[in-house]
């Protein structure tokens, strides 16, 4: 029965969700679904009216979830039994309706249902974007053509583009992320994860990897890439000015970190990590030994913050940020016409909030921009926390981020960015080559399904290829960098790249050349305060790279 199927999907979704706001919304949708279904099957008119009054405040969030996830029966019940207006605004930040949300998430059947009950095709969101335009912006071709069949008028959005133009711009954006190498995978390959991974890796020679990587580096010192970064930061400052006015706790300085700051961003300027650096008086930091049963998962030491300010207690620093930003954005419009909020707009992360934006310029006709905003508490570097050799001399402080469970974590994003920003060209090349190699083995979240499926293997269902995480590669690189500066050997870029991936592998003592399992990698900075992560997939990458090196040597000799 469809009711049971959708209920099972919602229960599974609630189980997998980590964010408390999303969990609550899913839990509410389950309650609404039960009430509406019972009203539809058994309810009398007076019972329906009484029950609908009770669930009406939850109707908008439930319809938002149903449209995004393509829950057809729940959508129908909310509109027909719950009597929600089909064109009601569901997201106050983007001013989107159910049709906008379903189209932007590629829920084709849900789009068809909404059209059948009279949803307005030409309804625009806060930035003049129609459902048709949003479908093309996220690369949902079949949804785009479905909506095109229902109307001929293609209205331009605030940025001046139409749905047809945005569809072409999405193809251009996707082409920016084209990896080098042409791979043909047979059905037999698809049933073996190692064969899929090996074929992709074999399609990229080390020479090609080195040359392509240097072409793909985003230059933030000039052109539209610089404009994107400046506009994003300007808009963030305007938003945070409103937030800090409502809650002075967040009146810290905005500091960009991550790849868009340290010079290692590849492909396009579409990812920004920003810290809100908060400094408070009368804050006491305690570094204590963690319980032995938790030490192997979370690190040997834990940090706690003792502060008089109620805003720094529990998970309030992280949790309140989402609520304050959401309130401030309900009546906020981004100033630059090239930038707009797009679904899901604002989401909560484990340590802060994330914005989903779209940039429509000239050099970059379309970018789906992700911005992570994290509040961090800046405190003096604690004696109990080790100071690795690569720590910049100017670094005297550490930053702490507040997690959803109320705990505090070391955040060394700014320290890492300052270190990586000063790399020599010979040191930076293995870092960039490694990032490019790993990106070739996985698809970006916004990419079409056929691109995501390419980097998978099949056993009863599709599984992603197992590759080392960004955390593992970054910290393996830092450990290699420390060793290379000690040895004062520059080496070959290909050999250096192999050496970085070997940091994620356990080597057989009798034969150092044979890599036979992945090992856990600790954080280079603050490793005692954070659990290690396994470098899964690294041994196979090392084997393929070494074979590639040997082939290159043979070619040179011949």
pLDDT averaged residue by residue: 90
Helix count equals 22
Distance between the termini: 67 Å
Shape: globular
Q: Can you identify the CATH class of the largest domain?
A: Alpha Beta
| Low-pLDDT sequence parts | none
Helix content: 40-55%
DSSP E strands, number: 15
CATH fold-level label of the largest domain = Beta Polymerase, domain 2
The fraction of residues in strands falls at 15-25%
Which CATH architecture of the largest domain is right? 2-Layer Sandwich
Q: What does the main sheet amount to? A: 7 strands, mixed
Q: How much is the radius of gyration in Å?
A: 25 Å
Quaternary structure annotation = single chain
Count of discrete structural domains? 3
Structural class: alpha+beta
ANK repeats: 97-126
Pfam family, one: Ank_2
InterPro entries: Ankyrin_rpt (IPR002110), Ankyrin_rpt-contain_sf (IPR036770)
Keywords: ANK repeat, Repeat
């Amino acid at each position: 029965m469809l009711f049971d199927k959708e209920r099972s999907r919602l229960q599974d979704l609630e189980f997998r969700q980590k964010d408390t706001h999303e969990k609550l919304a899913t839990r509410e949708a389950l309650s609404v679904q039960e009430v509406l279904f019972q009203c539809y099957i058994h309810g009398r008119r007076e019972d329906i009216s009484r029950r609908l009054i009770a669930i009406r405040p939850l109707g908008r969030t439930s319809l938002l979830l149903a449209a995004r996830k393509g829950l057809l029966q729940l959508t129908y019940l909310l509109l027909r039994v719950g009597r929600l207006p089909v064109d009601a605004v569901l997201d106050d930040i983007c001013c989107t309706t159910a049709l906008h949300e379903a189209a932007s998430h590629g829920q084709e059947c849900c789009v068809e249902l909404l059209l059948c009950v009279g949803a307005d095709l030409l309804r625009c969101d806060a930035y003049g974007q129609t459902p048709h335009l949003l479908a093309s912006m996220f690369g949902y071709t079949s949804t785009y053509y479905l909506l095109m069949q229902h109307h001929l008028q293609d209205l331009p959005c605030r940025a001046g583009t139409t749905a047809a133009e945005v569809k072409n711009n999405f193809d251009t954006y996707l082409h920016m992320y084209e990896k080098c190498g042409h791979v043909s995978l047979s059905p037999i390959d698809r049933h073996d994860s190692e064969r899929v991974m090996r074929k992709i890796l074999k399609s990229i020679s080390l020479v090609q990897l080195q040359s392509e990587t240097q072409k793909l580096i985003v230059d933030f010192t000039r052109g539209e890439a610089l404009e994107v970064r400046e506009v994003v930061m300007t808009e963030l400052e305007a938003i945070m000015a409103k937030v800090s006015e409502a809650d002075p706790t967040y009146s810290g300085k905005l500091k960009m970190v991550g790849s868009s700051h340290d010079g290692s961003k590849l492909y396009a300027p579409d990812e920004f990590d920003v810290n809100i650096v908060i400094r408070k008086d009368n804050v006491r930091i305690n570094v204590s030994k963690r319980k032995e049963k938790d030490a192997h998962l979370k690190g040997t030491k834990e940090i706690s913050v003792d502060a008089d300010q109620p805003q720094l207690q529990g998970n309030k620093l992280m949790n309140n940020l989402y609520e304050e930003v959401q309130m401030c954005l309900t009546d906020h419009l981004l100033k630059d016409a090239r930038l707009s909020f797009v679904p899901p707009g604002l989401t909560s992360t484990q340590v802060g909030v994330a914005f989903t934006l779209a940039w429509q310029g000239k050099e970059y006709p379309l970018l789906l921009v992700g911005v992570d905003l994290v509040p961090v508490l800046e405190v003096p570097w604690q004696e109990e926390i080790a100071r690795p050799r690569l720590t910049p001399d100017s670094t005297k402080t550490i930053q702490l981020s507040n997690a959803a469970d109320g705990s505090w974590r070391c955040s060394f994003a700014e320290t890492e960015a300052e270190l990586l920003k000063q790399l020599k060209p010979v040191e930076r090349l293995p870092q960039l080559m490694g990032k490019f190699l790993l990106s070739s083995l996985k698809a970006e979240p916004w990419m079409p399904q056929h691109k995501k499926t390419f980097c998978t293997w099949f056993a009863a269902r599709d599984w992603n290829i197992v590759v080392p995480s960004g955390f593992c590669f970054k910290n393996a690189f830092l450990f290699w960098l420390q060793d290379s500066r000690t040895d004062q050997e520059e080496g070959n870029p290909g050999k250096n790249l192999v050496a970085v991936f070997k940091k994620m592998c356990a080597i057989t003592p009798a034969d150092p050349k044979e890599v036979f399992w992945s090992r856990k990698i600790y954080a280079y900075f603050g490793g005692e305060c954070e659990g290690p992560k396994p470098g899964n997939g690294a041994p196979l990458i090392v084997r393929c790279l070494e074979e590639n090196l040997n082939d290159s040597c043979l070619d040179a000799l011949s």
